[in-house]
Amino acid sequence: MRKLKLDELNRATVSEFKEQDKLPVTVVLDNVRSMHNIGSIFRTSDGFAVEQVVLCGITAQPPHREIEKTALGATASVNWTYHKDAVEALNQLRADGYQIIAIEQAENSVMLNTFTPDKNVKYALIFGNEVNGVSDEAMQIIDTCLEIPQFGTKHSFNIVVSAGIVLWDFFAKLNL
Question: Which part of the chain is the tRNA/rRNA methyltransferase SpoU type domain (predicted)?
Answer without folding.
Answer: 25-168
